[in-house]
Amino acid sequence: MPRRTSRITVDRLRTPGRLSGFLKGASICVLIAGLLSPLAQSTASAATASNDYCGGQCSDILPPGENGNATLAQILLNQAFGTQPDHAEDQLGPYSNLATGYSTLTDAKINTFFNDASFGVSSDQVASTEKPAGRTDVTIVRDKKAGIPHITGTTRYGTEFGAGYAAAEDRLWLMDVFRHVGRGQLTTFAGGAASNQGLEQEFYRNAPYTEADLQAQIDNAVANNGTRGQQALTDANAYLDGINSYIDASDSGRYFPGEYVLTGHKDSVTNAGTIDHFKITDLVALASVIGSLFGSGGGGEVNNALSLLAAQSKYGVEEGTKVWESFRERNDAEAVVTVHNGESFPYGTKPDTAQGEALPDAGSVSTEPLVYDATGTGASQSATAASETATATALSSARRGMSNALVVSGKYTASGHPVAVFGPQTGYFAPQLLMLQEIQGPGLSARGASFAGLSMYVELGRGQDYSWSATTSGQDIIDTYAVELCQDDYHYLYHGTCTAMDKVEQKNSWSPTTADGTAAGSYTMRVWKTKYGPVEYRATVGGKKVAYTTLRSSYMHEADSIIGFQMLNDPDYVKSPQTFQSAAQHINYTFNWFYADSQHTAYYNSGNNPVRATGVDPEFPIWGQAAYEWKNWDPTTNTADYTAASAHPNSIDQDYYISWNNKQAKDYTTASWGDGSVHRGNLLEGRVKKLVAAGGVTRSSLVKAMSDASLADLRAEDVVPDLLKVINSSTVTDTTAADAVSKLQTWLSAGGKRTETSAGSKKYANADAIRILDAWWPLLVKAEFEPGLGSDLYTAFGNNLPIDESPSAAHGPTGSHAGSSFQYGWWSYVDKDIRAVLGESVQGPLAEKYCGGGSLSSCRDILISTLKTAAGTSASTVYPGDDLCSAGDQWCADSIVQRTLGGIKHSNISWQNRPTFQQVVEYTSHR
User: Fold this and answer.
1) Which residue from 689, 683, 687, 662 is spatially nearest to 912, judged by alpha carbons?
2) What is residue 337's three-state secondary structure?
3) Which residues of the chain have pLDDT under 70?
4) Bridge-partner residues for 152, per DSSP?
C-alpha cells in the first residue's frame, strides 16, 4: 500500500488559508474521487522469529503513527473532514491514555499502552507483504496493529534496499524537508513562512556545509574505519537505491506524498514535475540536523562571559566571580547524578589558574549577521523576529536536553532479570521525526526507532537479546575562540599570519503556493568561516577587534557515528555490556547510552571530548592561538586528541540508573546551566530509589514510576514545600494569601501533579492551585533575586538559564505544546536560597542569601505579596491563548501538539513529560 504524508511549514499549527480555501462542497468529492487509487498489497504469512530472547516482554510506542506519508487525496480528506490515513495516528491514543491509566497498570496490561516489540509478525497479524521493486532477496511485512515494516533480507544489499524503500513509504516528504533543512534550503523547497526561515537559519549558522564538505565527511568516515567503513558505504548506497526506487514507483503510480503537489513540485493533473532522487550527501545533511538538535553539547561561552562581567561589575572581580560560580553550579554536591557510586570523572572543571581567556570589553559584543539582501517577506517583521529567535537558539548554551531512562538491575527485580523503561524525548511532530522498523538480514538483527532518512540501521531499540537507548548528555564539545582581526573585518591572525576568512553563502527565494501562501521573498545567508569555525560574534578584547568563532569536535564529522550504529545492529558484535560500551564509543554525538539484557545493565557517555590545553576554562572564550588549541588539533580535518573511553562516565551493573538529562557523574561538568539541587532528574531518582529499596521491581511498576514522574510539577514536588515553610513560619492572616496557601497545600497532598479530573475531561484537578503556581513562579523569582543581583545581572543570568519551563511555556527547540518541561529553570536557585534563609544545611550554597536579604520575615513578606498577586491573576492572563487554545484554557495551554511537518493534522493530547519513543523491556534469556 502506498504510504502517506503530512504538512508543510515546519512550525505552524493552522491550515494555510489557501489550502482550506479550495476545500469547498462537492468539488472536493470530485477531486478526491479522481485521485484515489486502490493500491493494495497482498496478504502473506511471516516467518516466526527464532532469534528473539525477550519472551514477549519487549514493548515500544511511537506516536502519532508509523504512516507518515499521505497522498493528495488523503491530505484533502484530512483537512476537510479530519479523516486519518491508515496507521497515521493509531499509536497516539494508547500513548495518551497512559496518563490516566497508569495507576492500575499490570504487566498483563502493558501492551494496552504499548506495541508488542517481539521480533517478527505472527501469521494472523500480517496485514500485507511486498517484494519491493520485485526483488527476491527482501520482503517487507507490515503488521495489522501499527503498520510497522518488518524487513527481512537474504542478502545484505537486499535488506538495506528494503530499509530504504520502507523509509520512503513511511517518511518520504519528511526526509525531503530535512535534507533541505540540512543544506539551508528549506524556504526554496517548502515555502517562505517565518517558521521555515527561522529553522533553516538556525541550522545553517552552525553547519554551513558545502556539497564538497558533505562528501568529504563520507570519504573520511569510510577511509578511517576499515572494513566497517566500506560496509557502511555499501549499506548506505543500497538504502539510497531503495529510497529512489520508491520515488520512481510512487511517481509513475501517482501515489507520492501530496505535499509535492501542494508546494508546486508536482502537477496533480499532468503529473509534470520531479521528485529529486536522494544521494549520499543527503544522508549527511540529515545527520547534521539531528546531531545539532540532540547530540551537540556546548556553546554559550560568550553569554557566560557577559554574565561574569555583569557579576564582576556588580560585586567586584573576586566576589563577582564567586557569585557567578555559585549560580553556574559546575559541580554541585546536591545534584542528582546517573553514576551515583561516587566515582569521579573530571571533565570541564575549573582550572586553578585560567589561561588564554579572551573576555570581551564591556558593551562591545554584537552578533554576526546571517541574513543579507532580504526582499519581500524575507525582510518582513515576522521574518526578523524568526531570525532573532533562530539566532538566540543557535547560540544559546546547549539547551537541547531531552529523553529519560529508568534501568534496574536484576538483583532488585521480581524475576531476577533487569528491567528498563527508556527512550528519547524528541518532541512531537506529524509525521514524527523517528520511525519504527524491524530489520533482519546478514549481519543485521534489530527492531526500534531511527530518524527518518537515516534508518539503514536501528538507532534506538533492541537486538536479539539486548536493548539500548539514549538521552542527551550535553557535555561541552564546543569551544569559542577569539581570533584577532587584521587588514579588515574578514581577515584574522592564524599562527601569526594574516589569513582570509572563507565566505559561504546560500541564496534562497520563494513564492506563494497552495500549501504556504507566504508572499514572494528572498535573502542570502552568509557565513564567514575560519580555521577555528564559523564567526558568531564580533567584539573587542583589550581594545583589539576580534571575531568570536565556535569550534565543535563533531563539526565535519556527523557521518562518523554510523559505525557505532552499525555495531549496535550487529548480533555478532554486541554480546555483552562491554561490547555494547565499545559500540557506543564509536558514536561522537553527546549522548548517555543505556543497555539491558537478561543478566546485565550498563551505561556509557559518548562524544568526542577534546583534550584541552592546560589552564583553558571551557566556560569562556579563549584566544585563537596555538597555545590554547585542543591537543594535536588538525584544522584541515578538525581532529584532535580526545579523552579516553575510561574517562567518560561509564558503569556496568549499578543497582539502578536514571537519566533525565541530568549530571552524569561527580566532577563531570555539562555545558548547560541548571545541574543543581533540584532537577527534573530528581523526579525519577526518588521514585526508582524507593522501588529498588523495596525490591521486586516489575515492568509495570517501573512504567508507573516513569508515568507518575511524567505528570509531576517539579516546582510543586521539590520547591513549594520549602516556600510554604517560610510562609507558614507565622500565622497567615491575610485571607487571600491564606486561601492560596490552602489550595497549594491541598494540591501538594494530592501529589502535586497536573492531571485531568477524569480521562478526557480536559480539566485539571486542583486547577486553581496550578494556576496560582504558574502565575506565582516568575513573580517570586524576580522578587527574590532581582533586588540583590540588580537588574543587569539578573537579566544576564536569565540569558544563561531561563527562569521557568512550565508545560504551557514556549520553550525548547519546538516551542509551546512540546511536552518536555521542567528541565531549565531557577528551581535549584530558589531551593538553595530558601533553605539558607530557613537556616537549613545547604551543600554548595549560593554566594549570598537573596530572599529578603537573608531575613526570614522579609523573605516571608515577599513570598506572601507575590502569592497574593498570583492568586488574583486571571486564568486568561496566565494562559493567554494561541492559534489552538482560547485564553484561560489551562488544559489546552499545557496540551501536546503533533507539530505539522506535512499535510496531516492530529488532535492535541493531554500533557505528559515523557519520551516520545519509549521501550519497556525485560529479557528472559541470553544467547
Assistant:
1) 683
2) strand
3) 1-49, 394-402, 810-815
4) 139, 440
